Amino acid sequence: KLNVGVDTVQHGVEGLTYLLSESSKLMISETDFQDSIHVLGFSDELNKLLLQLYLDNRKEIRSILGELTPKLPSYHNLEWRLDVQLASRSLRQQIKPAVTIKLHLNQHEDQTAQVLQTDPSTLLHLIQQLEQALGEMKTNHCRRIVRNMK
């Protein structure tokens, strides 16, 4: 009926979906939406139809996008223990430390526990990497990304 190829229709639907989902995700204003679609070169009538479509459906699109986000486990509690092996039958004077961590997580109102064991040097490296990641989150670039993800 449209006298166009399947790929053209598919790309058009994907483009429209992307436009509406990104606009709804960022909750852009009417003027920003109009400016965004104005550069596409559509007629004024089509621009008004797209604006009305966006305004009518942006709250529903945001709720659907909110439901699609993965539900990751969240931190509940942490238990840790330091074990040190001082000697064995073959080696009478050795020191072999190990840190055992029991991480309690909440996921969908269910509590799970993960037991991890590592040596202190690996644990110190992990702590340094996490502190570096937290420091990275304080940069303006990361703050801008996090703000746009909401």
UniProtKB/TrEMBL annotation:
CDD domains: Commd2. Residues 74-141 form the COMM domain. Pfam families: COMM_domain. This is COMD2 protein. It comes from Dromas ardeola. The lineage of its organism: Eukaryota, Metazoa, Chordata, Craniata, Vertebrata. The gene is Commd2.
